[in-house]
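Re: Re: ligand-bound prediction request (bumping)

Still looking for help on this. To restate: I need the protein modeled with zinc ion bound, output as structure tokens. Inputs repeated here so nobody has to scroll up.
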Amino acid sequence: MCRHPVNGIGLDQIRPGLVPSLCRLCFPKEWKHPVTIGVMDAAERQRYSRQILFPGIGERGQEALARSHAVVVGVGALGSFHAAALARAGVGRITLIDRDYVEPSNLHRQWLFDEADAAEALPKAAAAERHIARINSGVLARGVVADLTPGNVSELLGDAGVILDGTDNFDTRYLINDFAVSRGIPWIYGAAVGSYGLTMPVIPGRTACLRCVYPDPPAGVQPTCETAGVVNVIVSAVASLQVADALKILCGRTDAVQPRITTMDVWNGGIRQIEMPVRDPECPACARREFPYLEERSRPPVSLCGRNAVQIHERERPIDLMKLQARLEPLGEVRANQFALRFFVPPYEMTVFPDGRAIVKGTSDTGVARSLYARYVG
Ligand SMILES: [Zn+2]
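Reply:
Sorry for the wait, this slipped through. Here it is.
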């Protein structure tokens, strides 16, 4: 058991012997791959026999999966499903990045976690790593308790064969897109809220990228699972399609990935697929190869603001405080006027200003502050 602090989280808060890989300082830089490259033994052949029988994968595809590395960014509703499905499919290495803890309100939709994880308030990355080890001891999962930032993106995503989007915020998606396009790594966008969700594969050099389709992040308040609720099966539906594309890519069948945006509504509507737009010849990312989200200054800076408070300096994001108040009222005490909105989410208190700036009291952990902002402002 190490004693290195991880992003301000003391490891002594976590049960001894749980996962040494929680610590980024202790964790080995190189993977020790458990699978002999290119050769499956009889037990592995048996284990994956039904998948090998499927012509789209076959024995060569299965061997490719064992050699591959998938990175899941955000191990919540979508990401915990990705992690379990990738492990069961035999993807050799799975990196799981998340900054949050398991809470009881996660359990209805976050398929990998159980009541014990919530009772212990385990970091999701750690809990996921532990569950994956039980699901498939032949694959390596490493949980990384971290906020993905321009500073660590290269180290955490640089070796990925595919990146799965399990995030809940556009900051991180635009960072993933810039990094993936700059390095030529495929990634699969996914989002779900309410009963609605969508997914879109980004294959650099072949399909449009996120910025071809949505040049800039959406402005204003966004619906989130915390404010608009979510039906659990929209999560598994979206995550399943993401994993299907990831498996095609990892087993060497990237050509089988269809450049389509799939939208689904499991309550009020059906499934719709539209062709992705063609690549924008003026796209700042995949055409002009400008990657502003990889620069630290592109991110709304976060600073410690007195004792036990963090300020998020978002400035160009006009927020309608009355609209935000209406969304937050069912969730807790809210007070708002034209100048500021104050929302109490014990043990935290968040004050949001009309330009998008916010002060989160009750923590000095910048990751916790960003997470609260993403959950309640969007
Ligand atoms: Zn593009």
